[in-house]
Amino acid sequence: MPSETLWEIAKAEVERRGSNGSEGDGVGIGDKSVFFIGSKNGGKTTIILRCLDRDEPAKPTLALEYTYGRRAKGHNTPKDIAHFWELGGGTSLLDLISIPITSDTLRTFSIVLILDLSKPNDLWPTMENLLQATRSHVDKVIMKLGRTNSKAASEMRQKIWSKMQKDHPDRELIDPFPIPLVIIGSKYDIFQDFDSEKRKAICKTLRFVAHYYGASLMFTSKSEALLLKIRGVINQLAFGIDKSKSICVDQNKPLFITAGLDSLCQIGPPPVPDNDIGKFHAHSPMELWKKVYEKLFPPKRINTLKDVKDPARDPQYAESEVDEMRIQKDQELEQYKRNASKSWKQIELDS
């Protein structure tokens, strides 16, 4: 664990930017940030700890958590700092997405969406809600940035197409995410035991979604070999390490597809019989794939807010003095409710 406090790191960073920052156009680039969002209990914390070489048990993420990592580029050179944010609660805390993504951090920001492959019925709504909320906020920040720094906003819009070759046949058919996006399918060890047709449908769908958004796609599990691959991808986002150009599209193996290397031709049509495709009425390719996927894996209608535990009752945050005071206040509240109830009943009798 780093010995410096967050305040010391922040102070050093301000000094570094003050001496090395660019002048004139205000397009200086700071440390990179990686924001992990995705399925509840999908393994986000485990992946972060693995990437940072921290040998500690993963604890449930309460809401929005922050940590950082440091890496030296070479001998006797200052270490780069990468900021890691993690959103807990699956799709229940979408409002918190706006906290780490600001006009100051946007140009060095990346999103890692982790989807639990063992729960295919939750996969599409989790992916859709999180990406829509994130994209909506990012678009607003880019517009705000454009009002004060049009050059930076213009560079960002151009950069999103950099991963796609100029002569790629799908350039006119996709809609890249405004900032770098990596989609990780977790719990592959469970997923690999699914029926072959189910695996094929999920793989094709995720390949389409990733390709449409100009994102990288890969599967992982507790396997050390797979975790090392994921670690390499995260290091590329966080520290600019050279990214892998390997590719695996075999549905019988963990997928690993770097952004820009897939194509709609290779992915093929949605997983539905040809004579049934006309039964799905859609206004866009994404909507068509959604309808086909949800036909195969109907989403569960669950109020995600019910899954959020009361942090005041979570054992990992226990503090005896605070808890005793909380119990006392709860008792006072219950007594107040009882007294209020009696008062209302008395009023009704008197009237």
From TrEMBL:
The keyword Cytoplasm applies. Belongs to the dynein light intermediate chain family. One of its GO terms (biological process) is intraciliary retrograde transport. This is Cytoplasmic dynein 2 light intermediate chain 1. The gene is Dync2li1. InterPro entries: DYNC2LI1 (IPR040045), Dynein_light_int_chain (IPR022780), P-loop_NTPase (IPR027417). One of its GO terms (molecular function) is dynein heavy chain binding. Keywords: Cell projection, Cilium, Cilium biogenesis/degradation, Cytoplasm, Cytoskeleton, Developmental protein, Dynein, Microtubule, Motor protein. PANTHER family: CYTOPLASMIC DYNEIN 2 LIGHT INTERMEDIATE CHAIN 1, DYNEIN 2 LIGHT INTERMEDIATE CHAIN, ISOFORM 2. Residues 306-325 are annotated as: Disordered. GO terms for cellular component: axoneme; centrosome; ciliary basal body; cytoplasmic dynein complex; microtubule. It comes from Heterocephalus glaber.
